[in-house]
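Lab notebook, page 48
Experiment: co-folding of the full assembly
Goal: obtain a model of how the components sit together before planning crosslinking
Operator: M.T.
Materials (sequences as entered):
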Amino acid sequence: MSAASEHRSTALKIYSYGFIWLWLLIAAFPFLWTLWGSFKVEGDFFSKTDWTNAVFGIRTTLETGAAYTGEGYWGAWVKEEFWLAVLNTLIVVVSVVVISLTFGTLGAYALSRSNYKYTLWILIIALIFRAMPHMTLVSGYLLPFFEWNVWGILPTSIIVLVAINQPFTLWMLHSFFENIPKDLDESAMVDGCTRFQAFRHVIIPVMWPGVITTGLFSFLLAYNDFAVTAMLLSKENQTMVPKIASFLGTTQTKGNVMFAVAAVVSATAPLFILVMFFQRQIVSGLTAGAVKG
Amino acid sequence: MSLALGACCAGFPGYLRLPSIEIGRRLEPNRYVESMKHRPFFWFVLPSTLAMLLFIALPIVSVVTQSLYISHDQVITEVENCGPFGCTTETKVDSQATQALREAEPLGKWNGLGTYFNRGHLAVSEVAFAWRHASGIGDFASRLMNLPFYKALAFTLTYAFVVTPLTIVFGFMIAVAVNTLSAKYKGPVIFFSLLPMIVTPLIGSLILFWMIDAEGIIGATLQYLTNNPNLSLKASTVLTWVMLMVYGLWHAAPFAFVVFYAGLQTMPQDTLESAMIDGASRWQRIRYVVIPHLMPLVTFVALIQLMDNFRVFEPIVGFNAEAHATSLSWIIYNDIGGETRLLSSAATTSVLTIIGVAILLSPVLVRTWRDFTRKAH
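Observation: model returned without errors.
Model output:
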């Protein structure tokens, strides 16, 4: 009896380990493969004859003299000016994170400290707004933005991304502020602080864990956005993601798809680093609303 | 799409609290604390609500307005040319006048609900025609699939309602499997598991697309395995849909995994142990103890995923799949991204999409409302 159940549990263990290995392969292999392939020429990465060419770099050796080449990166970063897109992305992402968190902490703090009915309405409306497909909003912006002559520039995209980010930021920070005891700012106010002073001197020093987690998700939203930046930025102001999309349109015919591969790898690297350092915060953020409430 | 990949995921309605935690929260010490006054509340929420009002609420008003207008026709003038053989009248497009008119009234002219019913959208007369002349339900469906709006709607709904349940099942399986690992392996496994979710959707779909390309590693392997050198996943509608849904699953499974995994950590151990003592098998324990415990999280993941999958867009661009699969967001993108920006057509699709979102969202809203009114007592 016990031998039978032990046997079964070993089988189950093997099965479950096998499943995890399979999942890891599915999750991670595409990234490793693309990273490896970005140092090859197109004839190897998209090998008509034999996929092992991509591993050993047969054509890369023939064409460039070495098994690895940085041509894709050179083409993308220098020839196609990907560095400019990187710079634009940096400006957009930093601004969006800073402004979103400023607006979001103020708003969410107030929402968590008021018991009036309108707080409920603001939160529910924010939830509805969060479900809006971004493309529908973008189609609403175009005509007014053309009329006001603000289409194509970075500040427009930044403020739009901040606004799109607000519902989510409010909900997430709201749940963090709910967990900060209200006695804290209340006693500061008893001691004579105004509401804002209480927020400034008592709440701000203790809110950073929640703000950092929320900031990570604001960063991801701005960094990963395609709908807004592709439609609202002019060609010279493009950020990384629309720039990569435009590579596909113009360079696939020229046989320079490797530029796009190199750009994709370059744009993925910061995300890897982010997960590496902030894994714990990302996991806790994903589950904050769900588990903690 | 999950465009707001990061954003897809957090900050949810509070009704999804797990029972054990809810008990803890009843002991909240602050209920006698006084509420924030109206005036400071107003100043605190002003920047945030103003941003949402200007860039989310007004654009919705803007799409509704734009959808009721249509751009001006070209101005046509009649010119009489009199020559030695008599006079002829000629009609000409007056491009200058057209330009001037379009600039003076950028919204265009009033069209009422005309755009809603035209061929590009609800296609009322085409649908009625197809209904009368179709030989059967299959024929009717295939005629509908020739109409752009219905084609996009079909893919969007299929995608949302296929990918969402698969995500839940797959995410749950990963969570259960990872939970059996010893602590030192959990960190690295979670790290690699997060990657498909954290990566930019367009980039993630490109990475997979290059691999399943006929000359990429998976595409070439499939050709070899099926012994069909012409096999191309891009060339068939069914395979394109499957490919996009596999991408959707790959992208969303980590989110479901992380949420369920966190739920498993709060599993009451004594319930599991008493089930074991009562002789429940491993499967019975999962079925009757673990799954009921995770049920609130399943609802939560399902709702978030339905909302995000409904706006599927980037994979269609990344996989270059528009010949076989389009989504509602994609046709809006296609209308406003072209050389001639079809603003009123895009606006009409947007309004129809928003109506779809409202229908999908209504159960969430009702539950959030109930949760809050319950909490108020």
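Interpretation: Chain B touches chain A through 125 residues (CB under 8 Å).
Next step: discuss with group before ordering constructs.
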